[in-house]
Amino acid sequence: MNTASRKPSASRKPALSSFSKLSTPAILIVVLIAVDFFAWWLNIPFVEDIFTVGTIYLVMVLGFQLFMGNSGILNWSYAGYIAIGAFASAILSMEPVDKLKYIPVMYPFLVNLHMPFPLALLLGALFSALVAAIIAWPLMRLTDSVGAITQFALLIVINVILSQWQEVTNGPRTFTLGQSRTTSLGVALFVAVLAIIVVFWFKESSLGIKLRASRDDRYAARSSGINIIATRYLAYISSAFIGAIGGGLYSHYIVSITAAAFYMNQVFVLLTMLVIGGSMSVSGAFFGTVLITLAQQGLRQVEMYLTVHGYIDASGTTEIALGILMILFLMVLPNGVTGGREVALRIRSRVREKPKEDSVETV
Amino acid sequence: MNLQILTEFTINTISMGSLYALIALGLVFVFGICQLVNFAYGEFFAVSAYTLYFLGTFTSLPWFMVFLLGIFAGVAIAFLCEVVAFRPFRDRSMDALLVTSFAVSVIAQRVYQLSISPRPKAVPIPDFMNRTVTIFGIGTPLRNPLIIATTAVLLIALTLLMKKTTLGIAMRGASENFTTARLMGVPANLVILAAFIISGLLAGVVAIFLSARTGSVEPMAGAGPLLIGFIAVVIGGMHSLPGSVVGGFVYAGISNVLSLTLPTTMLSFRDAIMFAIVIAFLVIKPEGMIRGNYHEERVG
After folding, report:
1. What is the mean pLDDT of chain A?
2. Do the chains contact at B279 and A157, CB–CB below 8 Å?
């Protein structure tokens, strides 16, 4: 028996050269900057709004991909960390006067906190990562459906606490940050570029490779000396951090938020973006976000047109269409539009010959 | 006086537990056979409850016909979900199935919102279900003893089905080892379809009693039972049918104790405490109170 013939993927697809690898984040960043620059250049507030929200979502989806794509665990609780980041950074950056005005019941020591936006964003995200670090270790042992249900339960716990803790989040009522937006298209773009670099670097780092190994074959990974729990743990915390940054950007753009905005529906949107793009690759997260943002906006326009012109009351059809789209995509392209691969400039090296294992297969 | 509270507590816990046991059972039937954590399960209730609402409001059918058709609606939607949404994904990853079931549930909720109403609708329930009867000196609505009796009958029927009939034996075989069961000539489609139909049937029965309790149905009506089912299943054991029944009763017990003992300011956090218990259970004892056949839930 020849064991070499058992790995067809290795013989058919040569490993990417380091140039090709580096080309992936470069392509994504260039495309992102070009798209956002175009939106800015058009100078239509409505278009700029769509692209700013889209770019913020990209940050969230990238963080989502970092853990879910590399570990294969469906991470429901991610929306909870986005929420923590959104609220924490908002509390840190708001003027004490505004806090007294909009959230009169807030704890006095929280009212007095005040710092510039970038610092608040960073500290808020660190806080969210800290929460993840405190609770996640025992949860990382669980896999498959048990793992998914645990994360689901965690999302509910976080949501209940956030939506009931009046002194911090204004409870189920709206939390208003103030009058003006702090996040702009430029800020979102800058963070998104950083996020692309970090998430891609993570995937190719030894930690990312270990995590992907544990996803593909748990037993082989463990017997190669990979500490699966520790690997997942670090990735989970990093993912929570990036998600919280996304949440902070979001709350400083939307300006009035509720805990209910970071719940199942948000997970559904993020999941749609990631699954349709292809959860196994950073490119998948990128193109999924772009596609779904465009589809969402297109559908919303149709919805509004139908409702305004009185054909039918179509509000809510966007989610139905997205859901159906997601099911169809999963049927036809289970690995998303990118098929779990990265976009890259491939230089065909003529030196590389056809691997010899191929000929053995016929024996 | 204390005895009275105790009796009341016991009756409430057993009747709630019966309801929750049925909910959990429906979830485990599907999970046990095709490893699908069915997020669309809540929609079986919602569809069934909406059917009760429609038939009860717009037709003059006798109540037992309404109930039967309501249960039938639950079965029909379960059948439809299996054939249309889940069958194409059976050979895909567990995540794909999970995501699909979630998408189905979101779609269904939007459809009720659009086509019926985003607001709750009153479900007409025959008067006798809410008539007060006295048991051991405690007044309780008749639906409570009724659900206990119904659950007992259903559990006996299901036990007979699983132990005595060919279909039941095939289903048990499939939940133990699907591949081997298929090699032994168990038709995969039939077994999975049967699991979904039983799941829908249980959901239909539960929908009647839940609607009797709340008196209304709204687009998110399925979310409550789904979460209850999750908790009960996790506590009892994901791979065991008796486990899910035990889990249902234990959940009802814990939930009633929390309602009695928590200070009123903390009551709004009850769900958070419930789910924290779930997480603790999953971490400490991921196989649940009653262990099924071997499954790996932990790494390390």
Report:
1. 82
2. yes
